Amino acid sequence: MITLKGKDIYLRALEPEDLAFVHKVENNEAIWQLSNTQTPFSKYIIKQYIENAHKDVYEVKQLRLVIANYNNDALGMIDIFDFDVKNSRAGIGILIEDEKSRGKGYGAQALNLLVNYCFTHLRLHQLYCNITEDNLASIKLFEKQGFKQVGLKKDWNFINNSYKNEYLFQLINN
């Protein structure tokens, strides 16, 4: 699919071979705050998730894709969640797993590809994301793609024994 191919990366469906990678990401406590995760996931549960990842986005209301380079190394994941057909919108989440791979433009390419996919193939009217106030890299990434800050949720997330504000960003397809 040409739509999901960029200069340095492409987006692909989850494969059974991604079990170890997804298990590593989902059980990394350092990033649990991004997904509001509270407990670890077993390999069994993740295997079941991957086995059901083929289901249509219209049925399960979400889509998770792997961000891979052209050596087929998994660099991260990008998600569509809360897919709302009636209101023609969805949330987006993104993670470049290895810190050494961050800041190289992979996230920007992946986000651009997914936004184009959502607007052209899924015909969505709008996309949104939620970003904590101190996640400056994500704020910069989404703003660069054209997302606008449209709201502030005060004391929204309890992280490391304190409450943090969370911004709501939105991109409307004109």
Structural summary, described in words:
It comes from Seonamhaeicola algicola. This is GNAT family N-acetyltransferase. With 174 residues, the chain is an alpha+beta fold. It has one domain (2-129): 3-Layer(aba) Sandwich (Aminopeptidase), CATH 3.40.630. Helices cover 28% and strands 35% of the residues. It has six helices and seven strands; from the N terminus they run βααααβββαβαββ. The chain has helices at 19-26, 32-35, 43-51, 57-60, 106-120, 136-144, and strands at 9-13, 63-69, 74-84, 89-96, 126-132, 148-159, 162-172. The protein has a seven-stranded mixed sheet. The chain is globular and about 40 Å long.
Short summary of the structure?
The chain is of the alpha+beta class and 174 residues long. Helix content is 28%, strand content 35%.
Structural domain count? 1
CATH topology: Aminopeptidase
CATH level-two architecture: 3-Layer(aba) Sandwich
CATH superfamily: Gcn5-related N-acetyltransferase (GNAT)
SSE series: EHHHHEEEHEHEE
| Percent range for β-strand residues | 35-45%
Spatial gap, N to C terminus: 24 Å
Radius of gyration: 16 Å
**Strand segment count:** 7
- The CATH class assignment is Alpha Beta
Overall morphology: globular
Task: List low-pLDDT spans.
Answer: none
Q: Average pLDDT value?
A: 91
GO molecular function: acyltransferase activity, transferring groups other than amino-acyl groups
InterPro entries: Acyl_CoA_acyltransferase, GNAT_dom
Pfam families: Acetyltransf_3
Organism: Seonamhaeicola algicola
